Each structure stands twice: as C-alpha cells, then as structure tokens.
Amino acid sequence: MSTARPELHVLRQGHGDPVVLLHGFPLDHRMWSDVAAVLPGDAPILAPDLPGLGTGPVPGAEPSVDVAADAVADLLDATGARRAVVVGLSMGGYVALALAERRPDLVAGLGLVDTKSTADTREARENRWRIADEVAQAQTVDAVLGMPQNLLGTSSRQTRPELVARITAWIGDQSPDGIAWSQRAMAGRPDRTHVLVGFGGPVCVVVGAEDTVTPRTDAEHMVGASRAARLVQVEGAGHLSAVENPAPVAAVLAQLAAQALA
Ligand code: MLT
Q1: Where do the AB hydrolase-1 domain residues begin and end (predicted)?
Q2: How sure is the predictor about 227, in pLDDT bands with cuts at 50, 70 and 90?
Q3: Residues 229-258: pLDDT tens digits?
Q4: Strand ranges inside 18-106, DSSP E
Q5: Ligand 1 atom closest to 150 (CA)
Q6: What is the chain's alpha carbon radius of gyration, rounded to the nearest angstrom?
C-alpha cells in the first residue's frame, strides 16, 4: 500500500488551462487516447490514473471517491493550473462531481459522460462489496474480466471483436487490490445531484444511445438538476461512448472547453 500521488499522463501538451479527463472503472487513462487524438483546440489534455488503477498506487486511505478527487486536485495544483475543464466517464464522473464540490475554484466546466449523480442502491452497493471481497481474496481480476459485455453497446459487441479484446486487456492489466479499493470507494459515494444544482459553470452531459449501465434517464436527471446543461446522445455506443465513438464526444467536449475557458 502507498499514499503516493497517482501518475498524471499528459495526452497533449498545449496552451492555457487544461482539459482533465477522468477514466471509468476498471480502466485507466488509456481509455481517453482516441478522444485526445481528435479533440479540437490547443488546451493541454491531462489524464490522471485514478488511485489504485493504471499506474495509480492503491492508497493507504479508506476507500472513497473523495480521496480520488483530492488526488486529482493535488495533481492539478502541482501543474500550477488555476482552473480546468473536468470531464469524467462513469466512475470518473463520480470523481468529477466530488471535485466540483470540494474544490469548486478548480472546476471551470463539467463534462459528465455515461455517468450519474445519484448514489448506489443498497443492492448495487452490496454487489460492489461482494466483488471487492472476491477480487481481493482471489488476488486476480477474473471476477471483472467479463465486464466489457456490459460496458460496450450492442453494436460494438456484435461488430468489433478487436474493441472487446482491447477493453478486456485493459481490465486484465489492473491490480486486484486497486479494483477492490475502487469498488469500495464507489459503494460509499453520496448522491451529488446538489452539486449540479449549485454549479455555476457550463455542464455537458453525454450518454451513449446503447448505454444500459447509466442510461439516458440518468443523464436526463443530471440535466434537469443543472442550470443550463446540454445533453448529447452518442449513436452506436454504449457505456464507453468515449472509446466506442470518440469523434462526437471530442467535438462536444471541445465546445464545452471553449465555453468554460473563454
Ligand atoms: C464505470 O464505468 O466507471 C463503472 O461502470 C462505474 C460503476 O460501476 O458505477
């Protein structure tokens, strides 16, 4: 166990305030590569590995999405950034909302991709604890290797075996303790809909048309709570819209960045 700061991956050097891309579970910064490659503009693109995943060491702290948000804030402070556009996919969205609550000074705009602002149901929480225990005890990631079946949309699953293999390989690279820590962190997160009610910057909510993990109803709930959020549906994509169909996601995030950092 370590409390060392997670690694910050710079996907594009650039000018001005950065765009920060927070990955989903059980993945790492690599899931943002295709979006970063086509994101218009010249803002720096920063993609940290969240604690316990990718090259992020498993924190010694009690599992909490707040710990992950504070780690991102520390990383941003270390770069000297005064503010950033913060984008999170699924678990990354939970962290983005925690960051907007804990360090509103840092968050100029919010991109919430295939995520939700509500807490887990009791059943979902118990399922996470069960998986966390199983993975930690077995010290393998076998229990989550089948997740691409849920994460990817039907179109991707049926026509893109190479994408299924890529996501499976990324999951296989994760550490069992990191997966267990992340599951427990997500299980304990509170409802953060109120953050959207109070947030003053621009918000963009993105959802894959085939997302069954955090479907459009979750996206609509966030848009309804926000002052002026934009809702964008990405066709031909499931829960990993940023990987399955990166071009429209990049286009909408560029518009968000232009608005937030103007
Ligand atoms: C993710 O993609 O990050 C996960 O589906 C989040 C979750 O399990 O709630």
Answers
A1: 18-246
A2: confident
A3: 999 999 999 999 999 999 999 999 999 999
A4: 19-22, 45-48, 84-89
A5: 5
A6: 17
